Amino acid sequence: MAPQTATKIILSGNRPTGRLHLGNYTGALENWVALQKEYRCYFMVADWHVLTTDYQHTAQIAGNTHEMVLDWIGAGLDPETSTIFVQSHVKEHAELYLLLAMLISTARLERNPTLKEQVRDLKIDEGEEGMSYGHLGYPVLQAADILIYRAHVVPVGEDQLPHIEITREIARKFNRLYGEVFPVPDGKLTKFARFPGLDGRRMSKSLGNTIDLADSPEEIQKKISTAFTDPQRKRRTDPGRPEVCLIYTYWQKFKPSEAAEIYEGCTTAKLGCVECKQRVGRAIAEYLAPLREKRAALEARAGAVEEVIHAGDAKARRAAAETMAEVREKMHIG
Ligand code: TRP
Predict the structure, then answer these.
(1) Which residues form the pocket of ligand 1, taking CB atoms under 6 Å from any ligand atom?
(2) Which mutation among 100, 117, 142, 149 tests ligand 1's pocket best, with the greatest number of atoms within 8 A of CB?
(3) Helices assigned H by DSSP within 45-112
(4) What's the pLDDT at 53?
(5) Structural domains in the chain plus CATH codes
(6) pTM to 2 decimals?
(7) pLDDT of 114-149, one tens digit each?
(8) How many other C-beta atoms can be found within 10 angstroms of the C-beta atom of residue 123?
C-alpha cells in the first residue's frame, strides 16, 4: 500500500543523544524504514523528553537533533513519505500532556518498571532531591506524543512497553469519559531488541561500546579489534563457541550469507579471532557504506536537515491541531 493511501498510523521517536549506533539501528531504525511502506509514519525527535533526565545540559540538544536526523535519513527514513519532526516545535503536545496528566494516578506512574530502572541508573543519592515531577510524568508526555497523531502502532524497544501500556490506559479512560477520540495503540517489538556492544553488554552510548552508523571503515576496524570474543578460546588452536561470541552475532546480522562458513571455521579452529574480526569489520563497513554516503551527501547540503524538519513540523502541527480541536470540544474546555 502506498503511504499516501495507508490508513494505519505509526508514531515513534527517540531522544536526541547524538549519533546513532548499530544497536539503535537494529533495535528500531531498520524496522522504521521497513514500516514506511505500509503505514503513514510520524518520526519524532523527543527533545522535551531529554529534559526529564538531563535538564542541566540543554546546549547539546540542537546539535544532537541534527546528527540524529542525518542518521535517520542516511538509514532510509524518507522525508517525502514520512513526517520527520521535532516534539518541541509542536506545542500542542504540551497542551494534551497537561490534560492527560489528570487521567492517571501518581501511584500508577510510580509503579512503572522502566522508571524504576532509570532511577537506579541515575544513582540519585540521598543528598539530592530525587526524581523530578517532569520525570515522573515521562510516560504521560509520551502518551500525548502518540495519541495526538491518533497512532495505531508504536514500534519501540522492550524498555518502552510499560509506557505504551500507560498510553493505552489513558486512551481508554479518555474515550470512556469524553467520547471516542483515540485509537488504543499497540506496541510493536523488534527482533534484535538487545544488540551486543563491543564488550558484550548491551550496545549503548553511555557504556562506550558502540559502533556508530557514521563511523568510517577504519574506525570500525579499530573498534572491532578491541571487541570481546569467546573467553574460553585462549589459544589460536582452541575451537571457539560462536553461539556465545558477539562477533558471530554481528556476522548473523551483517553478512548472514557467510555465517555458516564462519561457524564451521571457528568451531574447528581453522579460523582465528583476529582474521574473523577483520573480516566482520569489512562486512559491517560494506553494509553501512550506502548509509554513510547518503548521510554525507545530506550533510554537505547546508540547510537540508533544517528544511526536512521545517516541512515535517508543519505537517505534524496540522495533524496535532486537528486532534486538539476535537479534544477541546469533547472536553468542553479551551
Ligand atoms: N521514550 C522514548 C525513548 O526514550 C522516546 C519517545 C518519546 C517515544 N515519545 C515517544 C517513543 C512516543 C515512541 C512513541 O526512546
Answers:
(1) 11-15, 46, 49, 142, 145-146, 154, 156, 160
(2) 142
(3) 47-54, 61-75, 92-100, 106-110
(4) 87
(5) 9-195+303-331 (3.40.50.620), 215-295 (1.10.240.10)
(6) 0.93
(7) 888 877 766 654 446 778 999 999 999 999 999 999
(8) 7
